[in-house]
Amino acid sequence: MPGGSGSSSRTGVRVVVVGDRGTGKSSLIAAAATESVPEKVPPVHAPTRLPPDFYPDRVPVTIIDTSSSLENKGKLNEELKRADAVVLTYACNQQSTLSRLSSYWLPELRRLEIKVPIIVAGCKLDLRGDHNATSLEEVMGPIMQQFREIETCVECSATTMIQVPDVFYYAQKAVLHPTAPLFDHDEQTLKPRCVRALKRIFIICDHDMDGALNDAELNEFQVKCFNAPLQPAEIVGVKRVVQEKQHDGVNDLGLTLSGFLFLHALFIEKGRLETTWAVLRKFGYGDDLELRDDFLPVPTKLSPDQDKNVEWWIKSMGEEYCSRKNETLSFAASPNP
C-alpha cells in the first residue's frame, strides 16, 4: 500500500522563520530560494516565495524572515499570528541558542497562542566541531517530549547546502498533511474521529460485507486512492507486516478492520501522513475530518435483501460504525462514496 500525495485544498503555505540573532535564519532562506550557497545575505531577508513545482505537493510556500530585536517584537508577533507553520532556528555551534529554545522561544510561542506546526532547524551544521557531535535525537528528544507542538527537527547548513530544502518541505508537509487531527502523541493512538473516518472507508471498500478486505478489494482500494495496483507480492508483504504486529489484523478472508487501522497508525508513526491523508481525502474528508458536502450520502430505498445485509453488518461490526449522518443506507446501496 504505497504512499501518495493527497491533495489539500490549500493554495499556499506561509512559513515564518524565527530564532535568536546570528542563528542563520536569513542564510537558510537565501539558500533555499536560490538553491545555492548565498554569498551576501541581508540582515532580514525579503519575503520569499518557493514556486508550486518546488515540492511534490505543488503548493507554493511563502517564507517570512524576522528580526529578533526588541524594537521589532510587535512585527514579529504579527507575523507569527499569520503563520501556517513556524521554523524555529538555533545554531549547531552555539549551545546557548539551543538552550534558548526551551527557556524562551517555545514558551513564548505558547504565550502568544501560536497553534501551528513548529519545525526546529539546527543551522550552521558545518561549524559544529566533532567534539560536539551529539545525535539530533539526544539533543532534541527531551525538548520534543516537553513541547509536543514540535513537528520535527532538522540539522542543516546553508554553506554546504545540507538538508536546506528539507526544512521547508517538512514545514509545508506539516500544514498540508497535519498530524494533530489524526494521531494522539501522548497516547500513541489514532484519534477517535480519525478511527471513525477510517472505519467508514473500510466498510465502503468491504463490498462482500464479510468483515475483511480480500485481495481484490485491497487492490481496488489501492487503485482508487493511488492510481496504481498492488502486485501479488506486495499484498503478501502488507499482510505479513500486519500479522507480525497485530495478531487479529489478518484472517482467512483478508485484512480485517483491526489490521486496516493498524496500517494507518504505522504510516503515521513512520512520518508517512500523506498516505493516510490521501485515503481520507479520496473518500471525501476535509482537514477537519468532516465529510465534504458533495460526499454526504443521499437516502436510498433498500431492497429486503439489502435490509438484512445492513442488519447483519451493524450487529457484527458495531453500530457506531454506521451511526453518523445515516451512512448505513448509503454503504449498503453503493460501494462508492
Describe this structure in words.
By secondary structure, the protein is of the alpha/beta class. It folds into two domains: 164 residues, P-loop containing nucleotide triphosphate hydrolases (Rossmann fold, 3-Layer(aba) Sandwich), CATH 3.40.50.300; 112 residues, Recoverin, domain 1. Helices cover 43% and strands 13% of the residues. It contains twelve helices and eleven strands. The strands form three sheets. A six-stranded mixed beta sheet has the order 2-3-1-4-5-6, with helices on both faces. Strand 10 and strand 11 form a beta hairpin. Helix 11 crosses helix 12. It is found in: Mitochondrion outer membrane. It is a single-pass type IV membrane protein.
> CATH homologous superfamily name of the largest domain?
P-loop containing nucleotide triphosphate hydrolases
How far is the N terminus from the C terminus? 21 Å
Helix content: 40-55%
Largest sheet: 6 strands, mixed
Name of the level-1 CATH class of the largest domain: Alpha Beta
- Provide mean pLDDT, rounded: 87
- Briefly note the CATH topology name of the largest domain: Rossmann fold
Task: Tell me the count of domains.
Answer: 2
CATH architecture group name of the largest domain:
3-Layer(aba) Sandwich
Q: Globular, elongated, flat, extended or rod-shaped: what is the shape?
A: elongated
Q: Indicate the structural class.
A: alpha/beta
What is this structure's SSE topology?
Layout: E1 13-19, H1 25-34, E2 48-50, E3 61-64, H2 73-81, E4 85-91, H3 95-111, E5 118-123, H4 136-146, E6 150-155, H5 164-176, E7 183-184, E8 189-190, H6 192-205, E9 212-213, H7 215-226, H8 232-245, E10 250-251, E11 254-256, H9 257-269, H10 273-282, H11 304-317, H12 327-333
Parallel strand pairs: 1-3, 1-4, 4-5, 5-6
Antiparallel strand pairs: 2-3, 7-8, 9-11, 10-11
Helix pairs in contact: 11-12
